[in-house]
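Bumping my old thread because nobody answered last time. Still need a sequence for this structure:
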């Protein structure tokens, strides 16, 4: 009688991967592929890059429609050290001088001025950006001035430490008459091409002269 060959026995160890893990064992979890690292969060309580409350990007047409007041002329691109800066007066009350200065800065940037070209001096209350940055220490505050890559805001009492910039904007937003009397001549020496003064015309003219 012929022998019927037995079917080969397939041992469990020779089988392929198990569809389910053996009892008591947990199948390893595949490691996720790491994606790009997220950017580091900004320092708590401090705005990101140093633009003092960066202005909303607007077209010249939007600016003209939103701001019917006096426009700020663009200053010459290059100015020699002996040139006398152009002076422009923007009438404003002490309460509105800071807002007028902000509008002047926005117009300067919209017209093509680089942020690092502009220095803003206040005679009364500090600009909010300056007050905020000073809360991190004077060294950090003045380091931003020295970097020269953004609009810098300072007050009249320490403005003598600021270096010259092509455009200086002064907001006569209060303070004593002595503060304005010292800030305006100083601003004139710091302005390379253009000095913009926002405040009471009578007070400003009495300091800078009737030819303003």
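Sorry it took so long. Here it is:
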């Amino acid at each position: 009688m012929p022998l019927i060959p037995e079917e080969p026995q397939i041992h469990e160890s020779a089988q392929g991967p198990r569809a389910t893990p053996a009892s008591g064992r947990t199948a390893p979890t595949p490691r996720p592929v790491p994606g790009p690292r997220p950017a580091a969060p900004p320092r708590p309580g401090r705005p990101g890059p140093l633009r003092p409350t960066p202005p909303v990007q607007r077209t010249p047409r939007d600016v003209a429609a939103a701001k019917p007041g006096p426009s700020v002329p663009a200053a010459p691109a290059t100015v020699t050290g002996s040139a006398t800066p152009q002076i422009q007066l923007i009438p404003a009350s002490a309460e509105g001088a800071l807002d007028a200065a902000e509008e002047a800065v926005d117009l300067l940037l919209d017209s093509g001025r680089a942020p690092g070209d502009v220095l803003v001096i206040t005679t009364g209350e500090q600009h909010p950006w300056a007050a905020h940055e000073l809360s991190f220490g004077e060294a950090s505050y003045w380091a931003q001035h020295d970097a020269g890559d953004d609009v810098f805001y300072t007050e009249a009492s320490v403005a003598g430490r600021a270096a010259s910039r092509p455009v200086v904007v002064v907001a006569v937003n209060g303070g004593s008459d002595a503060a304005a009397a010292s800030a305006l001549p100083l601003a004139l020496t710091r302005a390379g091409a253009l000095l913009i003064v926002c405040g009471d015309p009578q007070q400003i003219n009495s300091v800078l002269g009737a030819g303003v």
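The first strand starts at residue 86 and ends at 91. Let me know if any region looks off to you.
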